[in-house]
Structure formats: C-alpha cells, structure tokens
Specification:
Family: Belongs to the ABC transporter superfamily. Drug exporter-1 (DrugE1) (TC 3.A.1.105) family.
Main location: membrane
Shape: globular
Pfam families: ABC_tran
Subcellular location: Cell membrane
Protein name: Nod factor export ATP-binding protein I
Number of strands: 13
Structural class: alpha/beta
Order of helices and strands: EEEHEEHEHHHEHEHEEHEEHEH
Radius of gyration: 21 Å
Strand order of the largest sheet: 6-7-8-3-9-10
Largest sheet: 6 strands, mixed
Length: 279
C-alpha cells in the first residue's frame, strides 16, 4: 500500500530523511517511532504530497506521489498533529465543507456525515460550534472528517498528543475499528504504549534514518526480555537480560531496591541510539 525506496529529504545541510526504504502492507497499522527531529513528520509530509523529496521514489497504492498528486489525495485521509478545524463552524459544517471540497454528491455527502458522526460518537454534538469541543472531541472529529471521501490509507501524526489517558484509549479503540474495516493506518507517535498496543509493525527512526523495523515483539527480542532498573545517585541504570532468572540473580546481588520489568520499545530505542524517545 505504501512503497518507499531511497527516500531523501535535505534542508541545506540537514538530512531530515536519509535514504529510507520501507513497505507498508494493505490492512496494516504501522507506527513510526522516534524523538523530535528524527524525520517522522517530514516522511509523512512527503507521503501526503505536502513536501517534495530531494531524491527517491514514493508510491501510494501503486501511484507515484510526485507524479499523480490528485489521484494520491483521493486515496489518503490525513489527521495532522495540530488542530485545523474551523472552530466557529459546527461539527456538521466542518464535515460538509470537506465533502464539498472533495466534490462528493449532496445525497451521499449527507449520508456520510451522519454515518461518520455516529461512528465517532458525536451525533448529539453535530450542531455545536467546534470551539466548545474538548481536545478529544476535536480529535475524533478530525478523524471523521479525514474519512469523508472513503480513503484507503489514513495518516495520523501524533494522534493522541496532549490528550489524557482515558481519551487516548478511546482514540485507540477508534483506530482499531477503522483498521477492522480494512483501512491501512500509518501513525507517528512518541508514546511507547501506543505503538506496542496498536501497531502490527514499528519502524524506529533516528537522525533521518530508519534504524530498526519489525513487530514490537521482534524488536524487543533484540535487546532482551527482562530489564532491571538500578538507581544510581540522580540517574537510573538499565540492565537487560534474556531470562527472568538471570535478572533475579543480578538483582539479588544489589545492595538497594531495584525494579524488575519486561522490556519495551523504549529500551530498544535507548539500546540503538543512546537516547529516549521523548528526548
């Protein structure tokens, strides 16, 4: 569904994306993980036709992005990191505008609006000005709006940033339901839990390069199954072990309290880069 080959994007001396190769399968939830400046958002901007690559080839459902922008835009839905709704308009009016921009016939447009507002649980607030919505409601409306023209692929750039944990989980459920209907999803995130719970596969980016690729379980196996956290003055040391027995044996030799836990994608990232995802 997404094919990236030799993708580069340079801003003068800065290599925002550096020789990236990646394929995303139909019906997959794929996550791009990495710190600020890793190249995630630049990659998304190229995929959704907002930026031109310096070099390389990018295809969406067999259509080369740089040559068939109009056709590509019909294939994709976009939920940006920043809110871009018209807050003086109602939820229904925001949806109506989007439908008209995509030249959806009136009867189909009205049916789509009602169906999608129900899908994101906003029917009762359809005629409320968006400026009165909570952050989670705005995010759900942005997802509904992105689905108006029935895209094959949904791009989500930090879909739950700034939302509280309860609202974040509602957005996760919504993404799963969309994927269950056959929509391919590519999302960027800083949240380790989000990537582990949602994504079929994850790509880790750092300094413009894709440095690791696989399922969350495959990536965690690369560093080890169990982590022992050892406090050391104002810092914490992390020691990774293949088996829990090895971790327990190591912890028993410590003179102070330690934390023993399963490894996660944050550990993978730290092992590969020496940095945390949120850095």
């Amino acid at each position: 569904m997404i094919e990236i080959s030799g993708l580069c994007k340079y801003y003068k001396e800065v290599k925002a994306v550096d020789h990236m190769d990646l394929n995303v399968k139909p019906g997959e939830i794929f996550g791009l993980l990495g710190p600020n400046g890793a190249g995630k958002t630049t990659t998304i901007r190229i995929l959704i036709t907002l930026a031109r690559p310096t070099a390389g080839r990018v295809c969406i459902n067999g259509k080369e992005v740089s040559r068939k922008k109009a056709q590509v835009k019909k294939e994709i839905g976009i939920v940006s990191q920043t809110e871009n709704l018209d807050v003086e308009m109602t939820a229904r009016e925001n949806m109506e505008l989007h439908g008209r921009l995509f030249k959806i016939p009136a009867q189909e447009r009205c049916a789509q609006i009602e169906e999608l507002l129900a899908f994101v649980d906003l029917t009762e607030r359809a005629d409320t000005a968006v400026g009165r919505f909570s952050g989670g409601m705005k995010r759900r409306l942005m997802i509904a709006r992105a689905l108006m023209h029935k895209p094959r692929i949904l791009f989500l750039d930090e879909p739950t940033v700034g939302l509280d944990p309860q609202v974040r989980r509602k957005i996760w459920d919504l993404i799963r339901r969309l994927n269950g209907q056959g929509i391919t999803v590519l999302l960027t995130t800083h949240y380790i839990e989000e990537a582990e719970l949602l994504c079929h596969r994850v790509g880790i980016m750092n300094k413009g390069k894709l440095i690791a690729l696989g399922t969350p379980e495959e990536l965690k196996k690369k560093v080890g199954k169990v982590v022992v956290e050892v406090p050391n003055h104002n810092e914490t040391e992390y020691h990774v072990f293949e088996e829990r027995g090895e971790a327990l044996q190591y912890a028993a030799a410590m003179k102070h309290d330690v934390v023993i836990r399963e490894s996660n994608l944050e550990d993978v990232f730290v092992e590969l880069t020496g940095r945390k995802v949120g850095d």
